[in-house]
Specification:
By secondary structure, the protein is of the alpha/beta class. The protein has one domain (2-43, 52-187): Rossmann fold (3-Layer(aba) Sandwich), CATH 3.40.50.150. The protein is built from four helices and nine strands, in the order E-E-H-E-H-E-H-E-E-H-E-E-E. It has helices at residues 28-39, 64-71, 84-96, 134-143; strands at 2-4, 14-16, 54-58, 76-81, 103-107, 122-125, 152-158, 169-177, 180-187. The strands form two sheets. It has a seven-stranded mixed beta sheet, with helices on one face. It has a two-stranded antiparallel ribbon with strand order 1-2.
Length: 188
């Protein structure tokens, strides 16, 4: 299977996933919508082209969301997944696209993440649908330094799933895309 990057300087480039591991890549429509909102709105208090933007893709699977960020001039992308084969595949794709110096990869459980080198500006969280692990993941990321008061978090869930956020977070926006829902949250 391969996925195509939908925008930015790498638009049309393929991300390969040749392993028989069940993944649910975020659709191109949802990816495009998320990045249009990031780039064309005031979600970030800083401008993407002028600063070092740190993007983290949790439950990254194929890594397509992180590659979309790299294609759109994000400076550093961290990929976290608990499957070593997927993490190795992401590194190979990054190397083939000459992006390997702009990524960090961690084979880790999302609710026990490694300590962050620095907080992320944007986090994309795509846990298995209806798993109920979004809140424990957010709390673990905050505890380990991935989340600051300026971090914007996108959480992809099933459109029928109710997102429960930690008490200190607010949902700023919710968008539905067929069977997928993306909620935008930040610390209150």
């Amino acid at each position: 299977m391969h996925l195509r990057i939908t925008g930015g300087k790498l638009k049309g480039k393929k991300i390969f996933h040749k392993y028989k591991i069940s993944i649910r890549p975020t659709s191109s429509k949802v990816r495009e919508s998320i990045f249009n909102r990031i780039i064309n709105s005031n979600l970030l208090e800083i401008k993407i082209l002028k600063n070092n933007i740190r993007f983290t893709d949790i439950f990254c699977g194929s890594g397509i969301i992180g590659f979309e960020a790299l294609s759109r001039n994000f400076d550093q992308v961290t990929f976290i997944d608990n499957n070593e084969i997927l993490i190795n595949s992401i590194y190979k794709n990054a190397y083939n696209l000459n992006l390997h110096k702009k990524i960090d990869t961690f084979c880790a459980n999302a609710i026990t993440p490694p300590k962050a080198k620095a907080s992320s500006d944007i986090i994309f969280l795509d846990p298995p649908y209806n798993s109920g692990i979004s809140t424990p993941t957010i709390l673990a990321l905050e505890k380990r330094g991935w989340i600051s008061n300026k971090t914007t978090i996108f959480v992809e869930t099933s459109s029928k799933e109710e997102l429960i956020t930690p008490d200190s977070y607010l949902i700023y926006d919710v968008r539905n895309y067929g069977t997928t829902k993306v909620s935008t949250i930040k610390k209150a």
